[in-house]
Amino acid sequence: MKFELVDRQGYIPDLNYGEAEKELAGFIPSNYSFEQISFNDGEGKAVIDKHTWYFFFTHEGIGIKLMDGIVSLKEAEHFLLAIKSHIWGEKHQQVQIFIAGVTPR
């Protein structure tokens, strides 16, 4: 399942990437422990609570894709809201959360 966090104005703040082997801390809120699997050119995979997530940039915002594991929609929403607050801040209200997929031809 893939999600996108998109600011209506197209604003994405500069991410504060973590130290080596923890660069994805720019995407992942500090109250989530994670094991980084990969990181390259500002995107990568991390294991959080036994689930593998892929973090990347899209044309319009930030992409987050569940690569391995199962989460409820409520769990995903809670996680995505935490990421939104981590990146854009608590008071920023312009960010929308989308479930993203490929449009059939």
Report what the structure shows:
This protein has one domain (2-100). The two termini are 19 Å apart. The protein is α+β, with helices and mostly antiparallel strands and 105 residues long. The protein has one helix at residues 73-88, and strands at 2-7, 35-40, 43-48, 51-57, 61-68, 95-100. The longest helix is centred in the last third of the chain and has 16 residues, at 73-88.
Count of individual beta strands: 6
Helix count from the secondary structure assignment: 1
Rg measurement, Å: 13 Å
User: How large a portion of the residues is in β-strands, by DSSP E?
Assistant: 35-45%
What is the ordering of alpha helices and beta strands? EEEEEHE
Give the biggest beta sheet. 6 strands, antiparallel
Measured between the Cα atoms of the first and last residue, the distance is 19 Å
Number of domains: 1
Q: What's the shape?
A: globular
Mean pLDDT figure: 91
| Strand order within the widest beta sheet | 2-3-4-5-1-6
